[in-house]
Structures are given as C-alpha cells and as structure tokens.
Amino acid sequence: MRIGELSRRTGVNAHQLRYYEAQGLLVADRGTNGYREYDENALLRVKQIRHLLGAGLSSEDIAYLLPCAVGEAPELVGCPELLAAMRSRLRRLDSQMDRLAQSREALNGYIDAAERMGGESYPLLTGPVVGSVAS
C-alpha cells in the first residue's frame, strides 16, 4: 500500500509516517515508480508506535522497544533493551514530577503568604507588578 492509504487506514498523517521512517521505526520499499510501498505489517507497526508515543516514550526509546513489541497495544516481551529503556524513561519522569512538586509547593507558599498579607498596602508598589499573572 502507498503512504496515502497507510495514512488513511491508521489515521496518522503522511508527514508523521515519513518521520517514523526517517527514525528507523517504519520500513517502506520503493516501487519502480519511486513511491513508498508498505506491506500489511506496517499497519500494526504504526499502531504500536502510536501507543508507545502515547506512553511518553521518545522515538529513540521506541526504536529499542519495537523488536520486543507483540500485538497492537503492544505487549512488550522482556528484552534487556526494553527494560533498560523503560527504566530510564521512568527515572526521567520521576525527576520531572519531583521538580513539578517542588514548584507547586513553592507556589502554594507564595499564594498563602500573599493571602495572609492581602489587606495591607505596600507603598513601594504603585502599579501592577511586572510579570504578574492575571487570574
């Protein structure tokens, strides 16, 4: 099937399919006319890629995982590369969540302090605070 048909059948636009191919996630043969030709396995492969992207994995991570992928969802069999990539991604997510939690705590502290001081006037502040957030 050509790229337009694969796009229609998967709901993924042709630009993204070409990107997947450039990243080594999807393979296409070239017909005598130069057009990309995909086999039926490409349908499953695109669905697997979409599910793994939805899990927050990068295309680089997915390149490691695809040889371990079975089925549409996909299920991932225990390849060593798979476990290492998923553990690495989980560590990155945990680190991001820690930073977000710290930012949230600090912001809540500023909000609480501002609410406690709400009625007082501040002579140094004669106009809106530069960079203030409107509610």
UniProtKB/TrEMBL annotation:
Which terms in the Gene Ontology molecular function aspect does this entry carry? DNA binding; DNA-binding transcription factor activity
UniProtKB keywords: DNA-binding
Protein's UniProt keywords contain DNA-binding: yes
Q: Which PROSITE patterns match?
A: HTH_MERR_1, HTH_MERR_2
One Pfam entry name: MerR_1
Task: Show where the HTH merR-type domain sits.
Answer: 1-68
- In Swiss-Prot or TrEMBL terms, this protein is called MerR family transcriptional regulator
Supply the source organism for this entry. Answer: Streptomyces gardneri
